[in-house]
Amino acid sequence: MAAEVFLSYARRAHRAEARALHDALAAAGVTVFLDEQDIADGAAFPAAIGAALMAARVAVVFAGVAYFQRPWCVHEFRLLTSGWRLDPSPPDSAPDLSDAVVVALPTAGDVEAVVAQLPPALAAVSWPAADRADALAALVRARLQGGDGRSIGERLAALADDTLVRLRSGADQPLPWAAPAPAPAEPAAPVWLTDDMPVPRGADFHGRALLLWRLVHEAVSARAYTPARRVVLQGLGGSGKSLCAAEFVARHARRAFPGGVVWVDAAAGPDALVAAGLRLWAALGPEPTSALPDDAAAGARWQALSAPLAARLQARVAAGSMLWVIDNLPEPGAGKGGIGDWCPAPRHLSVLVTTRRSDVLRDSDATLTIGPLDVATGLALLTAPPVQPGWLPAERWAAVVRWVGGLPLALTVLRAALLDGGLAVAELAALPEGEPAAETERLMQALRGEVDDTALRGAAEAFGLALQALQNEPGLASAALTLALLAPVALGEPLPAAAVGTPAVGRLARRGWLQPAGDAHTRRFTLHRVPASVLRHQMSAGPDDAADAAIAAALGGLAAVAGDADARVALHLDAVMRRLVRRGQAGASVFDAARRLLQAVFSQPTGRGLRFVAAQAAGVMGLGADLVGALRAAHDNGDDAATEALPHTLQALPREPAAMAWLAELLRDRRPRVRWQAMAHAPPVEALVQPALAALLDGTSDRDTGFYDGFLREPALLRAVLPALLDTAAHGHAAQRRIVHALCGKLLAAHGRAFEAGGFSGAALRRWLLNHALKGADADAAGAAAAALAAGDAPFDDESWPALCAAVDAAAADDALRIARLGLVRRYLDSTRHSAPRDVRVERDDEGGVRVSGQFFQTPDPWPPAVVPRLIGWVVDGPQDSVAAAAALLVADDQGLHDASDWAHAQVDAGHGAAVRRLADAVLALGDVGPRAVNVRWWRARAALADGDPAAAVPDLEAVLEAQPGFDEARLALADACLTAGEAAMAAQDGAAVLAWGRRAEAAKPDAVGAQQMQAVGHHLLGDYAGAEAAASRVIAARPDDGQGWWLRALSLLAMGQRDDARADAAEALRLAPDDPRFAALAADLAGSG
After folding, report:
1. How much of the chain is helix, strand and coil, in % rounded to 5?
2. Beta carbons of 436 and 461 less than 8 angstroms apart
3. Which residue ranges does the record assign to the TIR domain (predicted)?
4. What DSSP assignment string belongs to 954-976?
5. What DSSP character marks residue 4?
6. Nearest CA among 319, 219, 309 for reference residue 259
7. How far apart are alpha carbons 953 and 910 in whole angstroms?
């Protein structure tokens, strides 16, 4: 009979309390399931426990910190909360188990943190403490008496939650177990970088309590499975994703993520990543960053920063203790792809993503859908004071909520329009029944894809009404349009104030168009992409002078803040210019504002990114000549740093003759760093790069290539220079070739497998170096190419390896060249042996103990299957003078000798002992193979026996047994060799040992055939031929198809004078194994003797 009550608890925290409740309920006649078994570390969740939970009518959860750290406990909790975890939000018909679950709260500690992990229906109840068994028992009995008699499983029968489906399979459920996160040796102070986070609404945040709990459950409670969780919050525009994430951070982050929070607005692009990464780097402690070239693309700068940043985070921050928020993950094609592209350590940090995309499920541990508000919640938002619910009948308010599809953003702007008088209540009430106007149809096209199709018309009309309300106040609609032209990222307070004025910013915020963001130190505003789309649609449909005024105002605002936050100013300027290009026209006010902006950008220190975008803008607007003149005047002072930055700006003006002429001058500048920058940014004048590079190389000594290190770290800088470098190596003189080869080695060492620039991949560059190392006319340059080949880390290349092999084979007649090329093979193979990371696991048992296991040492990638056979062939079949070099290459790596061992044994089994003996001779002749020599001697002994040369095998077998006395097979082979070689004295010496080993083997495993073989040999060596014959007969009885037993008995029978019987056994042995030389020799002797 199934128990009525199930107790879910963590043994190390609430064992006594669970036992007390069990006893109290049992005394009252209630059947209780209490599992008290020890839980093995990493154990699967037993189907029997799941069945007991589903069969119970009431479950008691002993909630506490330890409870939510145990995978079994969290699994039981997930089963109980299946109805609340439905995605999207559960319908009214979803099963509610609030009357079937009783919670026992901890008696001490942070109770609020525990309550936060309960669904709202359970969190709202005042539960007894875990040590109050009487109160808990009374609650349980009341739930049993008031229930409908159905079990928990019956009430959840209609659900297809994955946890339930796996449970219903009837099998034990394997669960991931999170190892305890080790405390960093030098933990960093908490880091809070939330400048771009929307300001949380607190009590004004409506209708998302269940979703917030689901976020807590997946991001915090489920860390029992994996310490660093990746959770995605997915929904369409205007659904409140960012606000929900901000509310989660405000309410729960300080408890759940003691390492801090980093909020990245992905709408700002890779620049936001670089800025956040640099700030986080500084916050982790005083350690300088590696140089990040200012002129590199933001994506490349992030690539250079992310790996060292991840290493610092892993060293300074406990796993999962820091939350990394990626807000507004871009659409595919609009930015980088998955979670790993936007977070430096997605397996070490907790990650929360908000996105409209639905294709990031594969990157996440959990994906939650944020849908529209239900009618009741939408009503609460729309009619929040000072709006009065009595202004309209309840059904009319509900019709409005349904009309806009429950879109929180649309309800917010409608409420603001009601409050400021721009929208009459009666007008709002009539809209759901009206026919869509032509303007509404146009707005619907602007919003298509931004909001759900079912809410498209309502959202378009809602924003259209709100826009009309703005137009009723002079200048406010124009101010909103100006801000809509900027990039869709948080606007630092100075920018909107400079562009449209502080009063307009305040009025737009009050009307819901601008949303506040930032933290205690920084104030920002965001204009959501949905209303921004509406505003830009108005610009395209409105008069030209209004659009010109908005663009000019935006440029003027950017000019005012050009010296601050360069990355974002560049982003905004790029967005404004894209809008301008799409319009295809501009008035005088726009050109005047653009000139002021260019003056502001280039008359003060600003970043290269902003200068590049400003130069592009100048080119688009036909102001390139004016810009070049201004730059000439500003840089007449000859400042080195300023001049080095010029090529990056000038490349943005490829159609401006004055800019290209200046770039050509810089290619001939006397300063090497200026010339390098000019070459890196000179595609428009690429023909001039080659002579400039040749001159630069001629001024560099072989030992002075460190000058180039800073440039070689950034592949983007090499897009023009690398082809010129390689061309110089092909056509330049020997000194230039040596330097180019050394630089290529630095490139491979710096970028490894990921290198790609100038049309070359890492593999292609290695093939190029290999070609120069093999065919270079100059020995020094070829040596430099060979050294460069070994400098980088790149995968095995199916094109390079055959070329190398062919080069070695082609040098068969030239020992010195062949040895040199074998050295090149060694360098090539070493450069492909990328070390695999150590895999160390720290696991926790049920009582809190810790066990460490895994791979503690780095192991290199294995050689591909094609390598070792080639190396063996060069040893076995190569010219004598190069054999030692080939053998040294083979044994330089453990894998080479291991694979050679497999080859050797296969060759012996096939009867090809001579090749194996040549290989072993060459390897042992090296004299420095260490303990591995024993294995090689064993091959050689087996090969000698296979070749019918037992005398040669004996010394090797003795050496093997000296190193490994317990090697039974070698002992038997030695005895066999002694017998065959006719060394009676040695045979007798080994007889006792062989017999002792055979008896020991038989004691360990009575039915072991090998033990009987050894005893047969031992008896024979000691002259006990009757004992040998008896042991050999036992071998035959066990393995009648094995010639060894028949041969051993034939030897014993022969020694006892029973020649006819011996002849028959010898013939049978030969029939079973006609290629065995021992059997053939004995059979021939017996046949010949008659």
Report:
1. 60, 10, 30
2. yes
3. 5-81
4. HHHHHHHHHH-TT-HHHHHHHHH
5. S
6. 319
7. 18
CB-CB neighbours of 969 under 10 Å: 12
Is the separation of the CB atoms in 230 and 346 below 8 Å?
yes
CA–centroid distance for 703 within its chain: 39
**What DSSP assignment string belongs to 517-569?**
EE-SS-EEEEE-HHHHHHHHHHHHHS-HHHHHHHHHHHHHHHHHTTTSSHHHH
Model pLDDT for residues 483-529, shown as the tens digit of each residue = 888 888 888 888 888 889 999 999 888 888 888 887 767 788 888 87
- 710 DSSP assignment: H
Confidence of residue 848 (pLDDT cuts 50, 70, 90): very low
Measured CA to CA, the distance from residue 230 to residue 247 in angstroms comes to 18
Q: Which residues contact 206 (CB under 8 A, 6 or more apart)?
A: 373, 377, 380, 381, 384, 408
Nearest to 602 by CA among 626, 574, 575, 568: 626
Longest CA–CA span in the chain (Å) reads 129
Distance, in Å, from the CA atom of 971 to the CA atom of 493, rounded to the nearest integer, reads 87
Contact present, 459 and 520 (Cβ < 8 Å):
no
| Separation between Cα atoms, residue 593 and residue 589, nearest integer Å | 6
Tell me the domains of the chain and their CATH numbers.
Answer: 5-168 (3.40.50.10140), 191-371 (3.40.50.300), 473-621 (1.10.10), 971-1090 (1.25.40.10)
Is 45:52 a contact under the CB 8 Å cutoff?
no
- CB-CB contact of 969 with 960 (8 Å): no
Label the pairing between strands 101-104 and 58-62.
Answer: parallel
Distance of alpha carbon 848 from alpha carbon 1061, whole angstroms: 71
Beta bridge partners of residue 62, listed in sequence order: 104
Q: Tell whether the model's pLDDT for residue 1086 goes beyond 90.
A: no
pTM value surpassing 0.70: no
For 584-609, the pLDDT digits (tens) are: 778 888 888 888 888 888 877 787 78
Residue 131: pLDDT over 80: yes
Q: Determine contact, residues 728/697, Cβ cutoff 8 Å.
A: yes
pLDDT in tens, 382-413: 888 888 888 999 899 988 888 888 888 888 88
Residue with tokens 């449909």: 541
Q: Are 815 and 884 in contact (CB under 8 A)?
A: no
Task: Please name the residues in contact with 266: beta carbons below 8 A apart, sequence gap of 6 or more.
Answer: 272, 326, 327, 328, 329, 330, 335, 342
Which are the contacts of 562, defined by CB distance < 8 A and separation ≥ 6?
A: 569, 597, 600, 601, 604, 606, 610
DSSP track, 607-622: -HHHHHHHHHHHHHTT
Q: Chain centroid to CA 1041: how far? A: 56
Alpha helices in 95-132 (DSSP H): 111-115, 120-123
Residue 758, CB half-sphere, CA atoms under 13 Å: how many? 25
